[in-house]
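Schema walk-through. Below, the input block comes first and the output block second. Nothing else is stored per chain. Lengths vary across the set, and this one has 144 residues.
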Amino acid sequence: MAGVGLAGCERTVVVEAAEDAQNPKCADIMLRLPDEISGEKERTTSSQGTKAWGDPNIAVARCGVTPPGPTTDQCVSVSGVDWISKASDEDDTWVFTSYGRTPAVEVLVNRKAESGNDVLAAISPALAAIKPEAECVGAQDLDS
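--- output ---
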């Protein structure tokens, strides 16, 4: 019987708000984000401009992070949105940061629970409404 009582409880995901989370464009992005990713439902978060999916979390998004400048880190393009991709040194998390759009969005993906490509495919359409200011380029795109 105790398990039934716990089934209805939802823990709030504690997420630190990004520096520019109050940007009105963040509110637009947050409203466009999906309620579900890969069958995992959205959960309540503790801060403005944030969303999380799954229990345990498969992904956490924060809008309003500092936009990344030029970098040699890996860049992937999903649904017309460029993302800088890094593996976290501390745990099994991929860190994706949107590139070339302001405000920037950071997405943390649990590498053991979900594919980064699936998460970005679900999230990218919400950012596509923000006009890009820059895009990722590869070495082959640079003039010698």
